[in-house]
Design a protein that fits this description.
The complex is a heterodimer. Chain A is about 70% helix and about 0% strand. By secondary structure, chain A is an all-alpha fold. Chain B has helices spanning about 5-30, 35-60, 70-80, 85-105, and strands at about 60, 65. The two termini of chain B are about 30 Å apart. Classes of the chains: A mainly alpha, B mainly alpha.
Chain lengths: ~230, ~110
């Protein structure tokens, strides 16, 4: 932890801490909803540690509580979590750690840790931000879930405090620097539009994956541009 | 909860499969060497994924519309972030605006 503190600026650490706090609050509602749906405490507790991916856990609890088959619920959750594959492709090698450390470094991969890693400029900072956020979420998500399950109905409706707006706002704030590049902005808007159009018809998780077709808009940037360069006289 | 064994098996499937997704992207990345433009493309793809995640979590609930309060809060947070407001301000504003709108009866 001390090396994380040395590598990252205080402002980044503060942002990570705030993000983890938001995760804790969402965890509260997750634990409360799970218990209210008839699950014993150990279900959200175990899920939050072993799956460690919020949206898929909400979905699993929801499907099973509605009488669905747990395997069908797991498949639906896996569809939601499939975006972790492109995340792993995008992370520079070494961010998640090497050798045995990668076993745990892989587990703490989530939307927040990936977006904080990508926002940093060099590999040491990327790695420090990834681990700081990953460990923070590993503590706060299960912590919130267990606390929520214990407090119960008092925290079921965290929507009243606008907490459901926190997650998209966190992610949006972190990708804003990338969006200042016009081509990236255009592709991101196109991808978001594709996902939104697909959302009413496709199962959860698939619309976000479908957004990847917008990568085609980025390809134009990578065509050889030599012929557009002004000729330099010898 | 109906059948504990079945639920545990479902949970184990979800946990193992999620770990496999987290690992396989990294293994692919280690096996194939990407030229720098492709690496930049992969980062761009991640931004697209995250933007789509923002859009769907802000605007949808299940297969329907989330209501007005949440996307408005997120939008205000986005505008503040664009104008380089501190992260804390962005996140608190998004939650605050959403909560305020709901207090006023906006769905």
């Amino acid at each position: 932890m001390s090396s994380i503190r040395r590598t990252l600026e205080g402002s980044v650490l503060r942002d990570i801490a705030l993000t983890c706090l938001a995760v804790l609050f969402i965890g509260l509602s997750y634990g409360a909803i799970a218990v209210a749906s008839g699950f014993p405490l150990w279900v959200p507790a175990a899920q939050s540690v072993l799956v460690l991916a919020g949206a898929s856990e909400f979905l699993f609890i929801g499907v099973v509580a509605a009488g669905g088959n747990p395997f069908a619920a797991a498949l639906a959750g896996l569809l939601v979590n499939s975006r972790h594959l492109p995340y792993g492709l995008a992370l520079p090698p070494g961010v998640t750690g090497r050798g045995w450390r990668r076993v745990s470094g892989t587990h703490v991969m989530n939307d927040e840790s990936v977006v904080f890693a990508l926002a940093q400029e060099d590999l040491p900072r990327k790695r420090a931000a990834y681990w700081a956020c990953g460990i923070g979420v590993l503590v706060c998500w299960p912590g919130g879930a267990v606390l929520g399950a214990l407090i119960g109905s008092a925290v079921r409706d965290t929507n009243a405090f606008g907490l459901d707006a926190m997650f998209p706002a966190v992610i949006l704030a972190l990708i804003v620097p990338d969006l200042r590049e016009r081509l990236t902005m255009r592709a991101a808007l196109a991808g978001a539009a594709v996902a939104l159009i697909a959302a009413p018809f496709l199962p959860a998780g698939l619309p976000v994956l479908l957004a990847l077709v917008a990568v085609l808009l980025l390809l134009r940037d990578h065509e050889p541009r030599g012929d557009h360069l002004p000729q330099v006289a010898p | 909860m109906k059948d504990t064994t079945l639920v545990v098996a479902g949970m184990a499937t979800l946990a193992a499969g999620t770990y496999a997704f987290r690992l396989s992207g990294q293994l692919l990345r280690a096996r194939i060497s990407f030229p720098p433009p492709a690496t930049k493309l992969l980062e761009g793809a991640t931004v697209i994924l995250l933007a789509a995640l923002v859009a769907t979590t802000a605007l949808t609930q299940g297969h329907g519309f989330s209501g007005v309060a949440r996307p408005v809060g997120v939008l205000i947070g986005g505008v503040l972030a664009w104008r380089k407001a501190p992260f804390l301000v962005v996140v608190i504003a998004a939650a605050g605006v959403t909560a305020g709108l709901r207090l006023l009866g906006v769905p």
